[in-house]
Design a protein that fits this description.
This protein is mainly alpha-helical. The protein is 73% helix and 3% strand. The chain is built from five helices and two strands. Helix 1 packs across helix 3, helix 2 runs antiparallel to helix 5 and helix 4 packs antiparallel against helix 5. It is elongated. The protein binds fe (ii) ion.
């Protein structure tokens, strides 16, 4: 296994920052997968707008996961986005199986966005004193997800 030896953040600050970033990465990869599950299986009135909105959210979440993963590697550790790691460590509730009504889909996605946002906010707090660049990166991702949380939960009946 290759090792990157020049560290822009050193010591315990580095390991703690990477752990916080990795926890967020795991949630974000899961959120993108769950978003597709929701996109495929939503049924009912207003199907189309929720179906299409989910793909917008997935695009944003995938970009967020890419930014977080690449920050981990910038700090000279490998990013772990493997399915087995995500299944084991994601903090999101698993998505229910089967077809889901529009209203249930909106609630499921709002709940999971909230969990991922809370994870990002916890990460922001953790890395705040350790690495301001990682803090700034997590703030940017949280900002995008929070806007979508607004637009999703605004549709709840
Ligand atoms: Fe699609």
């Amino acid at each position: 296994m290759k090792v990157l030896t020049r560290h822009v953040v050193e010591g315990e600050s580095r390991t703690k920052t990477i752990a916080a970033l990795q926890a967020c990465l795991t949630d974000l990869v899961d959120l993108a997968l769950q978003g597709k599950q929701a996109h495929w299986n939503v049924v009912g009135p207003n199907f189309r707008s929720v179906h299409l909105q989910l793909d917008e959210i997935i695009a944003l979440v995938r970009d967020a996961s890419d930014a977080v993963a690449e920050r981990i590697v910038t700090l000279s550790d490998p990013a772990d986005g493997r399915a087995a790691t995500v299944a084991k460590n994601s903090r999101l509730e698993p998505y229910p199986e089967g077809l889901q009504s529009v209203s249930d889909t909106v609630t499921h996605i709002a709940d999971r966005l909230m969990t991922a946002i809370q994870g990002l906010r916890d990460g922001i707090e953790t890395v705040g004193d350790l690495d301001p660049i990682s803090e700034d990166l997590l703030i940017a991702q949280a900002s995008g997800l929070e806007k979508y949380l607004w637009m999703v939960q605004a549709q709840e009946g």
